[in-house]
Amino acid sequence: MTTAFENVPKEFIGKALFYDYKTPMTEVLGKLKMDEAIVLLNGKEYYGIIDERSVAKRSRVKIEKKAAAAKFATKVPLLDMETSIAKAIRDFYESGSKALPYYEGGKVIGIVKRGAMLKALLSLRMLSGLKVKDVMTSPLLSIDSDESIEEALTMMKQRGINRLGVLASGRFSGMISYRSILQYSATLRERGNAKMENVSKPQSRVADIADIDINSADYNDDVDDAIRSLVERNASGLVVKRGGKPVGVVTIKDIFRVAGAEGTESSEGIKGIIVSGMDGELKEYEEEVRSGLQKFVNKLDRFSRVKVESLSFHVKKQKIRNYELTMRIWFQNGGAISASARGFSIEKAFKDLADEAYKEIKRKKEIISMDKRQRKRSEEEEE
Question: What is the tens place of the pLDDT at every residue in 308-325?
Answer without folding.
Answer: 877 888 887 766 657 888
